[in-house]
Amino acid sequence: MKYDNKILDTIKVIFLALMLTVGIQYVSAQSWTAPTNTPPNGNTYAPLNISNLGQVKDAGLTLGFGLGAPSVTPALIIPYGLVSIGDTTDPYEPAEKIDVVGNVKATGFCLRDGSSCITSWPAGGGGGLPTGTASQTLRHNGTTWLANSIISNDGANVGIGTTGGTHKLNVAGSVNVTGTNSCYRINGACIGNVSGAGTANYVPKWSSASATLVDSRIIDRGVHPGGSQTGGVGINMTNPRAPLHVGPDDVGSGLLRVSKSATSSGNSALQLYKDGTPWTGWAFVNNPQDDLEINYDGSENSRTNTPFFIKAGVPSPNSTNGYVGVGTTNPLRKLHVADGSIYLDGAGKNIIMKSLGGICYAITVSEDGVLNSLRVTCPQ
After folding, report:
1. Counting Cβ atoms within 10 Å, is residue 323 exposed (0-12), middle (13-18) or buried (19+)?
2. Stretch 196-221: mean pLDDT, rounded?
């Protein structure tokens, strides 16, 4: 019996030794991989560790499962450096703290100070911006963006209160400029505050001396009612009695001048026309040769009928300057009547003529048609 027990103990020891040998070899096979090349080539990657050297892992990496859920313990902390995600072209030079090539999916976004968080985009989509109309400018009401601003911008012109306009700034409504040293600028020049006091009905003008608006010499009394009643626009005339009434200037003269450019080949004219179809009336025309034409015709701006014509220039001997033509634009004498007669109406009226010796005679006609001459004093 003692012999049998010794044999059994020996078998147990041998079996236990075999089991330990197999187990050690299995564990060793699972935790260590031999190099595939002659050392030092072909070595396997080092395991992730806490060294200060950079490491590369070809497979995926899962963090935080052991923390349990929910947990406030950080699963990944990156106090310094930048993070590049999805950049296969230049992953080692991210531009921001987190540089992502591709989409980012989240259930919410919050600012770091916790003052603002959103879990969905506001109504209208488009990255938080509402749907608007072409050229419309958005505005913010303190909570969200709105598409009901009165400012439009089509890329070329800006409109306030209007969506149209052909100028850089188009305003439908009034403009109020306030503040110290505020002004309107035209071509870069500040013209100051537009202010000042004036008299009722006077058209204002800008005074560079006082940088304000003051009364001009033009007054607008409204529609002229006709006749000699007060109304219309007056120039140097406080009580105009015509649609346009020009009064005397500072030296007592009244003057209305119509000018043209010194290099112009056109006309300057004063037209007295009657509205209608066609327009009819008179036109006093200074033609390109500086002659005066007094025209009448049945259509506006026509010069086909010139009953009166005065040659330009100062009258002088052997010159046609100042010659007057009636029915002709080429007077050959001081008074040239073409295709017509001269009619003197009035008993005792005459024509005064001066002789070569400087004696004046009044030419009259008798009852029987005989011409008579009577020596008279020459007009002075």
Report:
1. buried
2. 86
pTM for the predicted model, two decimal places:
0.42
Query: Is residue 311 within 8 Å of residue 331, measured between CB atoms?
Result: yes
* List of residues 6+ apart from 188 with CB closer than 8 A: none
CB 71: neighbour CB atoms within 10 A? Answer: 10
Q: Answer whether 326's CB lies under 8 Å from 313's CB.
A: no
Residues in the chain: 380
Residue 45: burial class (beta carbons within 10 Å; 0-12, 13-18, 19+): exposed
Determine phi and psi for 2, rounding to 5 degrees: -65, -35
Q: Tell me the pairing of strands 169-171 and 185-186.
A: unpaired
Long-range contacts of 17-20 (CB under 8 A, 24+ apart): none
Give the span between the Cα atoms of 117 and 115, in whole angstroms: 7
Cα–Cα distance between 203 and 235 in angstroms, integer?
A: 10
- Could you tell me which of 149, 147, 148, 171 has the C-alpha nearest to residue 159? 171
The tokens of 186 are what? 């035209």
Average pLDDT for the chain: 80
State the Cα–Cα distance between residues 67 and 79, nearest whole angstrom. 20
Rounded distance between C-alpha atoms, residue 239 and residue 219, angstroms: 8
**In DSSP terms, which residues pair with 325 in a beta bridge?**
309, 336
DSSP β-bridge partners for residue 376: 360
Percent share of the chain, pLDDT over 70: 79
Q: Provide the CA 200 distance to its chain's centre, in angstroms.
A: 33
φ/ψ of 139, rounded to 5, equals -135, 155
Amino acid at residue number 101: V
Residue 32 DSSP one-character state: -
Residue indicated by tokens 């090539």: 101
pLDDT at position 232:
92
Amino acid at 84: S
Q: Mind listing the pLDDT tens digit for each residue in 184-203?
A: 666 666 766 566 678 999 99
DSSP E strands in 10-114: the ranges are 83-85, 98-100, 109-110
124-143 tens-digit pLDDT: 444 567 777 888 888 888 88
Of the chain, the end-to-end C-alpha distance in Å amounts to 187
